[in-house]
Design goal:
Elements lengths: L2 E3 L11 E3 L7 H31 L3 H9 L1 H27 L3 H28 L1 H6 L5 H16 L2 H15 L3 H24 L9 H26 L14 H33 L3 H37 L3 H28 L1 H6 L5 H14 L3 H16 L3 H24 L4 H4 L2 H23 L7
Helix pairs in contact: 1-2, 1-8, 1-11, 2-6, 2-11, 3-4, 3-7, 3-10, 3-11, 4-6, 4-7, 6-9, 7-8, 7-9, 8-9, 10-11, 10-16, 11-12, 11-14, 11-15, 12-15, 15-16, 15-18, 16-18
């Protein structure tokens, strides 16, 4: 539902401005309405990531290790698409709040252009970088074979994930998150169905093993991107997509990356962190690396709903920042923190109570269980603290202070987590390494609080009620 304001608020007599729901709907209803579909779709995404690894683990522990070692490159891939998407989302939503529809359309079209550029980058990476990347981590020929097959396909067919990113962000920016739930869920379900068929050669299909897992993943992304494009063209009337006379706009791209680049750097730093932790753990055994990979898959089931909450929150905060409505901004932020804390505390409780059950889904051996049970319990302690840090970091991005999030991420993952993990590994006990995660998150909380004080003083408190 939308509100209309009469001609005295417009530049043209007799014309009415249409007010987006983000400017007037009750905040709790708005946040839940925009976030819940995203949270559901993120849960589905997390579920198919987990099931993907469950199927791969049936091939063998080395296949699971190979897929786990691919994660840093996949995280960079997601960083480029997600960071660009955050920049487009913030710019587009702010422009909607300002009623500047020329900027809205420029943000959308330049976002599509940047998605194409990202795809080209990863085709080059897929053809040149994958083998050296795996050789830098392991000399095991079986792991190398699985990993090169898997990651080459994921990189060279990455146009699906990049166009899915941008077209779903356009829907999120205008408050149409229900449709992104449909597209993401469809892509995930397709992946889930195709995984066992292609991995194990069911229903007359060829038995492709790890290659089948990669093909199922990229095919689901391609279908989801086509659906999201179609919905934008037919139903997203606030954005006009047209290639006619389109030229990349340097100023718009600069604005997109002024918000999105810190997020790209943050997530890429996360990739470096995972690569570093894998190097530390593989010195103990390939099983330790597999445990870390399983942890990342399992924790995504807890973190993904919070990221969905973030995706619903960003356009609301950015829109009302542009519209100069402080109480709606702060109300949204407080509610998001509350909901994120509830989700993450629940996750900690599950990890503490049922670690063996969670690991058993991945065909865990007794050795893997002995290593994985304490890992899940120790690392999950930091989840409730991370809830606050994740939401506040996203608020910084929505308000144009994404550099604060970047600084915090660098300090948490590079300055604290990796050195702490390395020093703890020198004890010769792999279970000590996991304590680096809670240690780093406590530091992140302190930095987040400091930057929140600055943002409130410099931006939020100066906006009238």
């Amino acid at each position: 539902m939308e509100k209309q304001y009469e001609a005295d608020n417009t530049d043209t007599v007799g014309e009415a401005i249409v007010e987006n729901k983000m400017g007037y709907m009750p905040v709790n209803k708005l946040l839940l309405g925009m976030s819940v579909p995203m949270m559901i779709s993120m849960l589905v995404q997390a579920l198919y990531n987990i099931v993907d690894s469950i199927f791969v683990s049936r091939i063998g522990e080395k296949a699971l290790t190979a897929v786990s070692l691919a994660f840093p490159v996949q995280q960079v891939m997601i960083a480029l698409g997600g960071g660009m998407g955050i920049g487009v989302n913030a710019l587009l939503s702010k422009s909607l709040g300002e009623k500047d529809y020329d900027k809205v359309n420029k943000a959308a079209m330049n976002g599509i252009f940047l998605s194409l550029v990202n795809f080209i980058i990863f085709v080059v990476i897929g053809l040149t970088f994958v083998k050296p990347f795996y050789l830098s981590q392991t000399g095991d020929t079986e792991i190398l074979g699985y990993g090169i097959d898997y990651l080459t396909i994921v990189c060279c067919a990455s146009f699906g994930i990049y166009f899915q990113f941008i077209f779903e962000r356009l829907l999120q920016s205008t408050g149409k998150t229900f449709y992104t739930m449909i597209t993401q869920t469809t892509g995930a379900v397709i992946n889930l169905i195709m995984d066992p068929i292609l991995i194990f050669g069911l229903l007359g299909a060829p038995k492709l093993g790890v290659k089948g897992a990669a093909i199922a993943t990229v095919f689901g992304q391609i279908v989801a991107s086509i659906m999201a494009l179609t919905i934008n063209i037919k139903l997203n009337t606030e954005i006009k997509l047209s290639l006619k006379r389109f030229r990349p706009d340097g100023e718009t791209i600069k604005k997109i990356y002024s918000v999105g680049l810190p997020s790209i750097i943050m997530q890429s730093i996360g990739s470096l962190m995972v690569y570093g932790i894998n190097r530390i753990l593989i010195a103990f055994s390939s099983t330790a690396t597999a445990v870390f990979g399983v942890y990342f898959k399992l924790q995504s089931f807890i973190f993904m709903p919070v990221f969905g909450l973030n995706n619903g929150m960003v356009p609301i905060v950015a829109y009302n920042y542009g519209a100069r409505k402080r109480l709606r901004m702060t109300g949204t932020i407080k509610l998001a923190i509350l909901y994120a804390f509830i989700i993450m505390t629940t996750g900690t409780a599950v990890f503490l109570a049922f670690p063996a059950k969670l690991l058993s889904f991945f065909n865990a051996s007794d050795h893997m269980l002995s290593m994985g049970i304490p890992a899940l319990r120790i690392i999950s302690i930091h989840f409730p603290i991370a809830a606050f840090c994740i939401i506040i970091g996203t608020v910084f991005q929505a308000l144009g202070r994404a550099v604060y999030s970047m600084i915090n991420s660098i300090m948490r993952q590079i300055v604290v987590l990796l050195p702490a993990a390395y020093l703890l590994s020198l004890t010769g006990e792999v279970n000590n390494v996991w304590w680096a995660f809670p240690i780093a998150e406590i530091m992140s909380l302190c930095v987040s609080l400091f930057f929140l004080y600055k943002v409130n003083r410099e931006i939020i408190s100066k906006i009238p009620d």
